[in-house]
Amino acid sequence: xxxxxxxxxxxxxxxxxxxxxxxxxxxxxxxxxxxxxxxxxxxxxxxxxxxxxxxxxxxxxxxxxxxxxxxxxxxxxxxxxxxxxxxxxxxxxxxxxxxxxxxxxxxxxxxxxxxxxxxxxxxxxxxxxxxxxxxxxxxxxxxxxxxxxxxxxxxxxxxxxxxxxxxxxxxxxxxxxxxxxxxxxxxxxxxxxxxxxxxxxxxxxxxxxxxxxxxxxxxxxxxxxxxxxxxxxxxxxxxxxxxxxxxxxxxxxxxxxxxxxxxxxxxxxxxxxxxxxxxxxxxxxxxxxxxxxxxxxxxxxxxxxxxxxxxxxxxxxxxxxxxxxxxxxxxxxxxxxxxxxxxxxxxxxxxxxxxxxxxxxxxxxxxxxxxxxxxxxxxxxxxxxxxxxxxxxxxxxxxxxxxxxxxxxxxxxxxxxxxxxxxxxxxxxxxxxxxxxxxxxxxxxxxxxxxxxxxxxxxxxxxxxxxxxxxxxxxxxxxxxxxxxxxxxxxxxxxxxxxxxxxxxxxxxxxxxxxxxxxxxxxxxxxxxxxxxxxxxxxxxxxxxxxxxxxxxxxxxxxxxxxxxxxxxxxxxxxxxxxxxxxxxxxxxxxxxxxxxxxxxxxxxxxxxxxxxxxxxxxxxxxxxxxxxxxxxxxxxxxxxxxxxxxxxxxxxxxxxxxxxxxxxxxxxxxxxxxxxxxxxxxxxxxxxxxxxxxxxxxxxxxxxxxxxxxxxxxxxxxxxxxxxxxxxxxxxxxxxxxxxxxxxxxxxxxxxxxxxxxxxxxxxxxxxxxxxxxxxxxxxxxxxxxxxxxxxxxxxxxxxxxxxxxxxxxxxxxxxxxxxxxxxxxxxxxxxxxxxxxxxxxxxxxxxxxxxxxxxxxxxxxxxxxxxxxxxxxxxxxxxxxxxxxxxxxxxxxxxxxxxxxxxxxxxxxxxxxxxxxxxxxxxxxxxxxxxxxxxxxxxxxxxxxxxxxxxxxxxxxxxxxxxxxxxxxxxxxxxxxxxxxxxxxxxxxxxxxxxxxxxxxxxxxxxxxxxxxxxxxxxxxxxxxxxxxxxxxxxxxxxxxxxxxxxxxxxxxxxxxxxxxxxxxxxxxxxxxxxxxxxxxxxxxxxxxxxxxxxxxxxxxxxxxxxxxxxxx
Length: 1115
Description:
Shape: elongated
Low-confidence stretches: 1-17, 524-546, 548-571, 582-627, 1106-1115
Structural class: mainly alpha
Mean pLDDT: 79
Number of strands: 0
Strand content: under 5%
Radius of gyration: 35 Å
């Protein structure tokens, strides 16, 4: 592990670390040479094959009428002509059905997933077939066509979205392009089915091809439920583990750590939101409300329209009419040419799909349109010649040849791109709705061309082709100026293209590491600094990393780069420098308050009742010393119990009626019963390794206090069964107990609804943990009577186990004891103390500091150990061998430093704003300046987090559980910082319109933080094992604050509607954790759940009250 340095250098190097990660990821992906024939890829092809059936279904349904229109039995039964307005109406009805479905397809896909969309479409197609095939009238036939078009619209949205989102990035063009190519498979089947059925006399000849539509739709209906869901849809639903599993299975050869999997996950985490417009079925604004969105919309609508009126509809629907204009009228020959045309076009489309990743999208579209324009010019001339001179077989054959050539060229350049390009240009949040809009524009264009082409052929015959000669040239011009290239970028990386001032110009630039950096939102980075810190500058000319940045190779010229631990430490120390200056800040704000009028009118009463405890005797610490040391002030007024005493809850008497003090509830609990005889569970060597490994990856990651040497010693003691009355044996028991506890509580972030087998396993691990703890408790006197680093380590781990049991008073007791002994050993070095022992004591010191402060945040009258009074004199963690993996060891140190820094900031926030005697939260002339400074320091802390722990301030999933846990800490701090604004507004009876916008904006910041704190809560292993009790109280406080705000109209409108689901979310999670942790339950956690349930009900009453939201006047 890189040694943690204390030097503080220029902070601009922090983004370099993120950039180096992005560069490394870009390099790793660039260096990959994936094979398209691995088992993982074969599985992907089989999965996509089911989605391709939707293309076949669309091709069959869309092409069927072209063949039926040439059948005499069909024309006779319904009284149709090859080209007439009635024929045009039959063709157009299919597209009219698609138009009717357009505003249903997007929401279904966004709400229920891509698989559900495909199923819905295929099922409706089955219904339409059952109406159309047995038709006895033209009206019934038209009705069946309408239903078919309605169903196919769902498939045409779901399938291309699914294929593009699941396709491997290295072959996305080919795999997604093949989807639309399968249209020709359906078309070929339709053509040859009609050709064969033409030999059947009577109405059965045309009914049979219609019934065959059931085949592909039936396969899709059944097959979709055996497919994985789209990983990007899963990510948008905050199901990050499911998305990771899908990507690992189909892109990463089964490994979640595969570079291409990691790249996509990081880019999706950065770009895919969990609260975007795809969660609101009615919201289409994201399709046009920004410059980049409008550029995307141009491509979507343009592709939909151009793909239908470039002349291709003529060869699909009006092939018989085109052949008739060339003098070919014999039925069997017309149908034969129709079938041959489809087969040749399919081969051309497949070739074009393969070349989309070689030539690019733009060249294929532009050059194929230019060639199509030439084809129509030739067809116009040869058609005229063949009609003027029917004996001129050469001109007729030339017409036929160029009709087929036109189909080949259009299929080569456009068929693979029609669905693919639309899906590529849209982000995940609008892909389904945008694709539906693309289909809508396509259906409108297709309807117009289908209905107008029949009369046009009747009236002007071959001169109709001239329209397409000039129109195709116009299309090519529009594409040249407005359609960007999408090749060689992942779906998320295309955001960089469309957000550029000139998307076309940006898209033609070569993809580089900058593309990855921009997608991961790493901005304003010195490129040379990135190269200096890049890990794989290999000295080639140029090396691959340097080449990706298009920079001169710097191998051998760079200075010694600092490790990531140094970079996070820079952030820690910079924040500390700001915090140590807070004395001057407060003094200045106090001075300024005497020279200016208050920002707001004086409140009519205090928002926080000074909830009375018996104050313990303690030495007085002046403000300067308290700010130098990040001390959490005794009797501070920001606990959940203090919030519950706000007068705003007087109108909800049931909240307090049966409320019992947390201390009384926990103090009255029965003691832990000891087993009458000592029993040690039987464990194999494998079990021991797994348990100690679990401890290392969880508890020792969060609080890295146990060295590898001590872990190995514990493994030897347990394996040999040589436990005795020594602190080493006690430590071994505690490692096993906490290792089993971590096995019982880890891996729950995806949800707490587990199968019975899983619950039984976790219960058995909890029972095993209790057995080890029982053995330890019988030896605990040894730990208490020995003064050594190992004894202190044992006391601290005992505190963690009591935290796991949700016994806060016992956990605090052992934290206090461990902290006291730790202070003593840091003050008086023991005989034969090693550097490792001293580093161990420092780490235990900081671990006790974090946990003691966490408990004091909710039980403010707890006597303090005094550890916070000397924290500024204790060095931050240095080098310590805690993990077998150097990478994990480094990440653990970074996480530990981030937690220390956040806890110090939280303590100072509580002290400066909510200290009983000196807090400024009630001084509305002083707190705005203090709040501004504290928020600045909070953002400094977030800015310096390493890439692995980065998070966004929303509900997007984080890359790791640890990032999710740190986001919860951040949101807690943010809500506490901005709470003074909220409490001031709550206590002021003046009209809300008198408050400035910045005041309401600060209230929103507090309320958003509270709600996001709730919505982002997950079963993080750190939370479940150590923080369940603390978390239950913190969440109760957040719910109470939201309830108070809901009662005022102007505050209520600042709160997102997700507040109505917050209570259920909390109850499900916390109850699930307590069930897994086992009995006996914590009475204060149970009380928190009761209050959360009551608050949820009161919030619903406020939102659904018929009388609206009225301010209740309080005495």
